[in-house]
């Protein structure tokens, strides 16, 4: 008997003209590790929320979901709390108390458990998740990775049969994300708990999964063993969503087992090189600093750009560009400093420790600068200092021109009842280029996380800023839209906008940044061109750099491998 049966499930939001889910049917066995993937807005989050009725969105539902042959909507709130654990994309939305120990205890307290039982279970769960050192910490002081780990522990203390996770690593740095998923895998293996997870980062996730579900436009298009699904998906429109090693394998017509992880990809690549009779793939690759810095090429997308390539120091009149409110020619201003940060120090309270320590930063007009580093290192704080939301107690910050700020939590930008009202100041051409027409009549809170990111960015761009501060702009969005976003940002930069990007998405930063800087302990400890930055870093580097290191010198982004 299946643990969960989803039968002909359809769902439509009150504010939408079309179904977000359409006739979705599949089964999940007890102890399965199921991964949902698909484009932003394909229905993943909606499906996951339907698995727990007390957080199900408002709208019209058809079909049914059975948990051990029982309709899931018949479960009481108490039964749902015990049987189904849910970890949200944004850890801030789930934490409800001021102390870590109280957050762990909160669910059991709500269930009316005795104090001695609560104390015992809290101690046990803190030990299991290795968070005993956080026991007495204020939840507000935790990093994003720590908050998400506490959320997971607070869910698991209820001993659920099913663990549902909606993009749980979207705000985590790569190292923290891998650690988090290792723990989720351990929970699945140690306790036989059924795991259902939605994620865009498949490169390290699929190695844990025994079932992959691919969705598109609210419909299930593939479901089954990851290897079998990959063989089909790699030749479909959803191919860019698949793991990078798998896409490289497919791009070279690889034979045999499809590599999923970086380790598998390296093994395949070594064998491919040794067995290959065709030397053209490798002989044409001449990764020099001169070549890397002179040209950057991007794939044309019908929705976003008329540009095929960008020449960094060429005649601006040769470029075909969209009009974003900036002059199309600024050759004399190319090296003009727009952002200057000199010896900046900041602390949140007068008596607290310094959070930003002696920060120095210099960014030119038309440059895309990516800030990279672990959770809690000061990256978001820096964007808030640059935007003027926070003020340093020492040092100077100078920003030339109007600032547009996209915060990590984009929902704070939404004030209206529909996307159309939110974007009333935005040019129709930009709405079309970002493919937002179908969302205009929806309430912003009914959108997926990725769709909210798109709308929020369009709203910020509608103010026509000269400097863009983007805090995790790729959070919750799929690889297809990431490419579109990257092209958009490059076009903006080519037209004079200065872009500062805080991101955990190292592959995105490697593809589209001019320079990158590494943050640690409140300070910028290194910076370089994107190429040199990622080739010289061992841990904070791109998937391609990890895959090709010691095999193909100089490769750090996808175009280097295809």
Walk me through the topology.
Layout: E1 4-13, E2 21-28, E3 33-38, H1 44-50, E4 59-67, E5 70-71, H2 77-83, E6 84-87, H3 100-110, H4 115-128, H5 144-156, E7 162-166, H6 174-191, E8 194-198, E9 211-216, E10 219-224, H7 226-233, H8 244-251, H9 262-275, H10 280-283, H11 289-294, E11 295-297, E12 309-311, E13 337-346, E14 356-364, E15 368-373, H12 379-387, E16 394-399, E17 403-406, H13 419-422, H14 428-433, H15 449-461, E18 467-471, H16 479-494, E19 498-502, H17 506-512, E20 515-520, E21 523-529, H18 530-536, H19 543-548
Parallel strand pairs: 3-8, 3-9, 6-7, 7-8, 15-19, 15-20, 17-18, 18-19
Antiparallel strand pairs: 1-2, 1-4, 4-5, 9-10, 11-12, 13-14, 13-16, 20-21
Write a short abstract of this structure:
The chain is an alpha/beta fold.
Describe the structure.
This protein is α/β, with parallel strands linked by helices and 562 residues long. The protein has 3 domains: 4-236, Rossmann fold (3-Layer(aba) Sandwich), CATH 3.40.50; 248-280, no CATH class; 291-402 and 464-545, Rossmann fold (3-Layer(aba) Sandwich), CATH 3.40.50.300. It is 32% helix and 22% strand. The protein is built from 19 helices and 21 strands. A 6-stranded mixed sheet has the order 6-7-8-3-9-10, with helices on both faces. It has a 6-stranded mixed sheet with strand order 17-18-19-15-20-21, sandwiched between helices. β1 (4-13) and β2 form a beta hairpin. The longest helix has 18 residues, at 174-191. The chain is globular. Residues 288-332 have low confidence and may be disordered.
């Amino acid at each position: 008997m299946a643990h969960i049966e989803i039968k002909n499930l359809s769902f439509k939001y009150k504010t939408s003209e079309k179904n977000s889910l359409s006739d979705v049917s599949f089964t999940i066995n007890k102890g399965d590790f199921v991964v949902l993937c698909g484009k932003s807005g394909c229905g993943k989050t909606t499906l996951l929320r339907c698995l727990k009725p007390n957080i199900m969105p408002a709208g019209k539902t058809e079909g049914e979901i059975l948990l051990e042959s029982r309709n899931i909507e018949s479960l009481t709130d108490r039964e749902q709390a015990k049987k189904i654990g849910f970890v949200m994309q944004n850890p801030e939305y789930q934490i409800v108390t001021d102390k870590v120990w109280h957050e762990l205890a909160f669910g059991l307290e709500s269930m009316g458990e005795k104090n001695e039982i609560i104390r015992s279970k809290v101690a046990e769960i803190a030990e299991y998740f290795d968070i005993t050192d956080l026991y007495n910490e204020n939840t507000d002081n935790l990093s994003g990775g720590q908050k998400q780990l506490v959320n997971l522990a607070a869910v698991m203390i209820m001993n659920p049969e099913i663990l549902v996770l909606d993009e749980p690593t979207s705000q985590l740095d790569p190292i923290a994300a891998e650690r988090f998923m290792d723990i989720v895998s351990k929970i699945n293996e140690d306790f036989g708990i059924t795991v259902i997870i939605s994620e865009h980062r498949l490169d390290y996730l699929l190695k844990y999964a025994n079932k992959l579900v691919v969705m598109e436009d609210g419909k299930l298009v593939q479901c089954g063993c990851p290897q079998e699904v990959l063989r089909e998906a790699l030749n479909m429109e959803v191919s860019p969503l698949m793991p990078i090693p798998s896409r490289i394998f497919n791009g070279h017509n690889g034979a045999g087992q499809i590599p999923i992880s970086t380790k598998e990809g390296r093994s395949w690549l070594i064998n491919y090189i040794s067995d290959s009779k065709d030397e053209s793939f490798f002989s044409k690759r001449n990764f020099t600093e001169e070549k890397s810095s002179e040209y950057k090429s991007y794939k044309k997308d019908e929705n976003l750009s008329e540009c095929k390539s960008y020449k960094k120091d060429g005649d601006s009149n040769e470029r075909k560009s969209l009009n974003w409110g900036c002059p199309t020619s600024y050759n004399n201003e190319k090296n003009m400093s727009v952002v200057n940060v000199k010896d900046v120090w900041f602390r949140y309270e007068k008596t607290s420790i310094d959070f930003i320590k002696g920060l120095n930063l210099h960014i030119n007009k038309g440059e895309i600068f990516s800030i990279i580093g672990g959770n809690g290192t000061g990256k978001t704080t820096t964007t808030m200092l640059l935007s003027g939301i926070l003020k340093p107690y020492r040092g100077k910050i100078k920003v030339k021109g109007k600032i547009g700020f996209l915060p990590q939590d984009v929902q704070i930008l939404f004030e209206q009842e529909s996307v159309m009202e939110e974007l009333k100041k935005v040019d129709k051409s930009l709405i079309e280029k970002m493919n937002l027409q179908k969302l205009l009549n929806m309430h912003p809170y009914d959108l997926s996380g990725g769709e909210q990111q798109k709308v929020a960015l369009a709203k910020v761009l509608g103010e026509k800023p000269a400097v863009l501060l983007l805090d995790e702009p790729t959070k919750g969005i799929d690889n297809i839209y990431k490419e579109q976003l990257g092209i958009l940002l490059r076009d903006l930069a080519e037209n004079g906008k200065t872009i500062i990007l805080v991101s955990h998405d190292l592959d995105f930063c490697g593809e589209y940044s001019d320079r990158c800087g590494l943050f640690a302990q409140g300070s910028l400890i290194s910076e370089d061109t994107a190429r040199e930055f990622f080739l010289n870093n061992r841990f904070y580097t791109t998937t391609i750099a990890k895959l090709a290191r010691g095999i193909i010198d100089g490769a750090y982004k996808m175009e280097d491998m295809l």
